[in-house]
Amino acid sequence: MSCVTGADLKEILTRIHFTIEEHKAYLSKLDTEIGDGDHGFSIANGFKNVHDKLDEFGAGGIGDLLKKSGFEIIKVVGGASGAVFGTLFTGQASYYSKNLIGKETLSLADLTNMLSEALTQIKQRGGAQAGDKTMIDALEPAIGELLKAVQGNLSFREAFEKAAARAKEGAENTKNMVAKRGRSKNVGERSLGFIDPGAMSTALIFSSIADYFKEKES
Amino acid sequence: MCRKSTVILYFTVSNGYVKGENIFLLHFYEVLLHFTESRITHSRRKLMVMKKLINKTEDIVKELNAGLVKSHSDIIQLAAPDIIIRKKPKAKGKVWIVFGQGAGHEPGYNGMMGYGMHDVEVPGGIFACAGGDRIYEGIKIAWEGSGHHPVLLLIANHEGDVMNAGLALDLARDEGIDVESVLLYDDIASAPKGEEKKRRGMAGMTFSFKIAGAMAEEGKKREEIIKKVEEVTAGTRTIAVALKPCTIPTTGQPLFTLADDELLIGPGVHGEPGPEGPLKMMSANEVMDIVAHKVLTDGEFKNGDEVLVHINGSGSTTLMEMFILYNRLDEILTQKKIKPFKPLIGNYITTQEMAGFSLSLCRANSEVKRLWAATANTPYFKVMGGME
Question: Among partner residues B132, B254, B255, which is closest to A74 by beta-carbon distance?
């Protein structure tokens, strides 16, 4: 496939919902180690609500779908996770409405640019950088891989397979980091050895997208 | 006698948790317990069973908001299922104060709003700040209610609260609403001295709420209120102690683990572990000696100072214990010639059934004392005006 449509994005959001739902107890367990233990359940609840409203959200096109999905997550999840994971979608929507408005098929470059803008906005909102033991440690390397894939003219499948692998690696690397942001920063050095739950959710989101393209292109 | 009242079961073989809804399994353990009771006194494994009077977990926040408002319908009302406002709104032309936060800390601060405190409360999910779009709705309500008078948003310094407040401020200002915010922080365990603004907002925020609310009620200008609240916040120091974790109502899991003979100094208001590991359990006087020393040193409180005092229970610690703690604190303050003014003691900013407390001190001059003593009428925090 050479482009994605709104219908693809809806299917991807559905897949993300199922993947996060499946892993929510695990994600909450990670959060209990270094935070308040609700990450998996709250983030799963957010994607479930998005999933339940996909028909309504999708009616206004790609920008509308992403914006409404993002605000649904902000509203339902709340807390830092809601703001960060909501911005992952509203950030994409704001790039779309500035640069791609009306375009109903997106190239890999479009999607990569949208995700890059979301990353920028997440950093602004939370003030976190790579290495702070947050979801950015999974998101940034994954987007780096997508940028390379755009340069190398890779397919969606190849691009997201690599991006998902990098996101997972990034998430696992957070084990070696001392938290500087989020509630886990309160435990300081004692956060060493534990995976950041937000980074793991991000890795799961990318693996859901990779799985979708794998299925679609096989 | 039925053993259904057992909340914490001691048992030797399991290392898991029994989920609240898994009644069958629970009964199985109880039956087993009857047979093994005599032999388990030395067991070390702890099974925590969430035992809360709730309905569906997804309905907790909605139902608690509804119940709170119905039971105090003379003071507060719902403006939306998730936004609480005063029953008798503050007059137009005065500064309306908005606050967004996570639920699960009752009565703080959804049960501490009303005359002399804040005007609009936006409770979020359990331990998770309300989304920025909801806080924005709260700001909008204040803007309309006050007749387009400048609005003040209070922000507890927690990442989620700050991010969502930022989002709300952006959304509101895009619409031309005149809103400013002030950041509240006080927990000395969460960032070192010199980096006070990185500290978490804890029970010491109550001083700032009270001072802001009293000034707004008097019709003071927003900028003047902000200045005073910043001053009060900068003069406030808090540290918490946890003896037992709580279970998180949405997950049924304990927030953290702590051995029976341990306590934790410096945990967060959500029970986040503190920077120091657990200490061995100690007496009330011993623990107060430690936390008072930390707070007095960090805040540089000295001979001749006057202080507002708040001992806040985190849920299941008794008033009996809190008075014993205050008795020691008063001795320490007397010895150091620091004068406490109208201490506030009780369960206000709670963390479910967590056991423990926090100690907050705030440097007070005559103006701060006057505002602390000014009339407030909220469901769970009432002050009869006057400072005789």
Answer: B132
Would residue B334 count as lying in a domain? Answer: yes
Segment B137-181, tens digit of pLDDT: 999 999 999 999 999 999 999 988 999 999 999 889 989 999 999
B111 and chain A in contact, CB less than 8 A = no
Give B77-105 pLDDT, tens digit per residue. 999 989 999 999 999 999 999 999 999 99
What b/e readout covers B234-257, taking b as 16+ CB neighbours within 10 angstroms? Answer: ebbbbbbbbbbbbbbbbbbbbbbe
Rounded Cα distance, B140 and B293, in Å: 43
Among B residues 39-58, those touching chain A with beta carbons less than 8 Å apart: 58
**What is the band of B45 on the pLDDT scale with cuts at 50, 70, 90?**
very low
Which residue from B128, B132, B159 is facing A42, i.e. has the nearest CB?
Answer: B128
Q: Which two tokens stand for residue B218?
A: 């008097």
B362: CATH: 3.30.1180.20
Domain span at residue B14 reads 3-48
Instruction: Find out whether A141 and A114 touch, Cβ atoms under 8 Å.
Output: no
* C-alpha dist (Å) from residue B55 to B20, B249, B354: 12, 11, 21
Per DSSP, the three-state class of B267 is coil
Q: Which residues of A touch B249 (CB under 8 A)?
A: none
pTM for the whole thing? 0.81
ipTM of the complex: 0.73
Number of A/B CB contacts below 8 angstroms equals 115
- What are the catalytic residues of B? 105, 270
